[in-house]
Amino acid sequence: MTFKAPDSLAEQIAHHLAERIIRGDLKPGERIQEQKVTLALNVSRGSVREALLILERRHLIAILPRRGAHVTELTAHKVQSLCTLMSELYILLGNSVADRWQVQADMAPFLQIQQRLSASYERQDIRAFVEDSFSVMRAAYPFANNPYLQETVENLQPAMSRAYFLALEQRKAEMSEFLELFERLLAAVLARDLPQIRVVLSAYAQRSCDLVLSALPVA
């Protein structure tokens, strides 16, 4: 594989490795060796080292003294902790949209995502469905206008993607339920109903968490 755009090379390498971790090609506990990655991708060792630091910040690997980089374990405690935090971050984003949308056109990106979610449901394309689920939060960033919130969510999103990927098949049966939750969320945002936004997003996070937990391997 050959990468371009040297100014974003580390990010590209990090994205490539993240995708392998999310898909399960790189297993929990598996070591990621800088030299092997350097040779396999034909990139500099410095860029790989920087990419590994990015992945550590995104909670996909741990870098330990004298042991190097290893893929993090996905445990029930980590899943529950992540879902609890992401729930509150989603609520912050939802409240920002509810507080700051002014005209119907402001909601157009969310309606387009709703249409894509419905199309993914009709095709039973669970991967596209999950990807568009994350598109919702990115559409909310301009309303929040909070770089710290955005950075936090972006750094946690790969870990959530990894958890969701594990539960893809379990989520397939729940797609219609998530569509209904999203419809309720849009209605609450349009009504500027902050308590209802919390109810809907808390239910979404809890249901997602339950599905991931049910997909974890039995210890």
**CATH hierarchy: architecture of the largest domain:** Up-down Bundle
| H/E topology pattern | HEHHEEHHHHHHH
Low-confidence stretches: none
For the record, give the distance between the C-alpha atoms at the N and C termini, rounded to a whole number: 36 Å
**Helix-residue proportion:** over 70%
Helix/strand-derived category reads mainly alpha
- β-sheet strand percentage: under 5%
Largest sheet: 3 strands, antiparallel
CATH class of the largest domain reads Mainly Alpha
**Helical stretch tally:** 10
Mean pLDDT: 91
- Biggest sheet strand line-up: 1-3-2
Give me the CATH superfamily of the largest domain: GntR ligand-binding domain-like
CATH topology label of the largest domain: Four Helix Bundle (Hemerythrin (Met), subunit A)
Strand segment tally: 3
Radius of gyration computed on alpha carbons: 19 Å
Judging from the principal axes of the Cα atoms, what is the shape?
globular
Tally of distinct domains: 2
